[in-house]
C-alpha cells in the first residue's frame, strides 16, 4: 500500500452510489439562508406543549433518576408500552406486550426490514411513497414495486395483480394522510385493500404517523383493526406528530412469533431506546391532555393547508394538479408540461423558497413534474410569500 | 390460504434460527428472582451523578425547549460533537465535523456494519470478542474470524497471517479492558498491531467504551492515535461508562469520505438521535466534572475487581485461569477440565448467582469452559456471597 495514496475504506455495495445529490445539497443550505422552506415535514415549534414535556422529564428525574440512567430492556419501558397499547386499543385491542418501542418510526421501519427482507425480495409500496422508508428497505436489499394509486389510495385490483405477480414480502402502506401525497384512504377502500390482503395472505406494514392529524371528522381506524387483519399487520406509530419529533419515540404493534424476531432485530440495531425519553413520553401520555393539544393544533394546520392550496391555485398553471388534504402535513403537486421539479428547485432556492422534488418519492418511473410541499411549518402570511416566490421561480424556469 | 392456520410472517434468513436460547431465557429470569447477577455489564446506579445529569436536562428544557423537541441533523447536535471532539482530542486531534453521533455504541456498530460489510465479507475479531458486536456484524452478512490472543491482546503475527488469508473488510478490536476478557493492550502491543494494519492496509474499527475506567495509571491512547492510523480507523466511544448507559449517547470518529457514508447509513437506520439526550449530554460534558466522577468511581470498581478475583481464587479449582483486570467491568474465567459453563449456569441460578457462559463470545470454536463475570454491579460483601454460591454450583456440577 503506497503511503502517497490516502487510505480509503471499502464501502458496502448497498451504500455505494449513495452520494451527496444536488437536491440533498440544495436542501442542506435551505435552513441557513432565510429561505422559506416547504421541504421538511417540520411541525411549527410554537405549538409544542413545552411546559408539559418539560414537566414530564422533571417528573422522571425526580421520581426515577437511577432507572432513567440505567440499562433497560430492548422491548421498551413497561409504562410506555402500556400507554402505547392504550392508544392503539382505541381502534384495535392491544396489550403492552404486543408493543415494541423504537427510537422513532425510522428505526421501526429499519427493524421491520431487517427482520423480514431477504436481498432481492419485493416490497409493494404506494406510488408515490415515503422516501425514507424506501431508503431503509433498499439498504436491506429489497426491490420496491409501486402500486398505482388514485385519489383514494392504492387501487385494490392493481394491488391484487401485483401481489400475484411478485409475491411480496410485505405491502407497505401509509393509509392516513400519506407522505407525500396527503391522500387519506376512505373506509371502503381500506376494506377493499384488507380483502385483497386477506385473500392473498400478503403481510401488511402499516405506517400511521399522521392519523391523528385529521382536520375534519374523527381519525380513521387503521387497516390493522379491520376483521382478520391484526395478525397479518405490523402497525407503526410515533409521537413525532402528537407530541414532538425531537424525542424520537415510536412503537410498533404486532402479534405472535414475529414480535420476538422484531425485538432481536431491535436489540442488534440499537440495544434499547433511551430511557429518559421513554419514561418522559409515558408520563406525558398518562397525564397530559393529548386530545386538547391535538384540538389546538388541528385548526391551525387546517387553515395552513387551505391557505397553501388557495395560494398555489392562484399561482400554478391552471391544469396543475394539487391535492387538497384534510389532514397530515403535506400537499402534493403535479405540474405536468414536462416540467422537471429537480431543475426547478435551484431557481426556487434563488428566489427564496424550497420544496422536495417529487421524483425521489417514486420507487421507479418517477413523475418528474411532481413536488411535495409541507404546509405545517409556516403561518399563512409566510405561506403566501413562499408561494409567490415559487411563482417567480416557475416563470424564470418557463423562460428557459 | 386456509383461515384455520394462523398467519405467519416470512422471516429474513439473517434472523432465522435466532430463537430464544436457554441461556437468554435463564438470564431473563435472573433479575426477578433475587439472584446475584454477575451477568450484565451493569454499572452500580449508586454512583450515577444523578444531580448533575438532572441539572443538564433541566438546563436544556429551560434554555432550548423548542430545539430539544424539533427534528435535527443526522450527524448530531453541534455542541455534543464539539464536546466529543474535545474528549477524543486529548489523544487524537479531532474536529466536531469528524464526529457522528449515535444512539449508543450498539447503533454505532450497526451503522459501521451497514456501511462497510457485504454479505460474505470477513471481519477479524478478537478471540473471545464482544457478542453484541458479533450480532450486529452477523446481521449484515459478515463472517467473523477470531484472531488468537495472549495476555496482551491479539497476537500481531496471527493478525498479519489472518489479514493475508482473509483480506478482511475490517479488524474489530476493543484494546482497552476488553469485553469479555478484561485485557488491556499495552502500548508496545498497540504499536505492533498498528504496524501490521499500516503495512497491510487493513481498516480498523476500534471500540473504546472502557478506556477511561482505568484503575491504575492513565487511560491509554487508542490505536487510532498512533502515527498513520487515524485515517484508517473508525473509533467508537460512548458515555455509557463515563456518565450513564440509559441516555444512549455514543459517537464515532472518522476522517474523509467514509464520514458521509456513515451519516447516510445512520440516517436510514435511525434518522437522528433524540435531541434532549444529545443536548443534555453536551451540557453535562461542558459543565460537570467528568474527571471527578471517574476518580470517585475508579477506586470503588478497583476494589470490587480485587475482591472478585480473590474470592474466585479461593473457590475455583486451583488450575482455573482468572484474568486480573486493572480496568473496565469484566473478569474472564477459564475453568478447563471439560466443564461446560452453559450446563453449569442452571445450577448457578438455582444457587442464586448468574454469569454469562463464555461460548457466545467466540466467533467459532468456543472454549466452553469459560465465563464472563462483571465485578462493577455489586459491593464486595455481595460479591463474596455470589462467589460462594458459584462454588456450591460447581460442586453440584462436579457430582454429576
TrEMBL record, chains A, B:
Protein's organism: Kocuria marina subsp. indica
Domain Aminotransferase class I/classII large: 59-390
Name used for this protein in its record: 2-aminoadipate transaminase
Pfam annotation, one family: Aminotran_1_2
Highest taxon, organism lineage: Bacteria
Entry similarity comment: Belongs to the class-I pyridoxal-phosphate-dependent aminotransferase family.
CC cofactor: pyridoxal 5'-phosphate
Alphabetical list of SUPFAM superfamilies matching this protein: PLP-dependent transferases
Quaternary context: Homodimer.
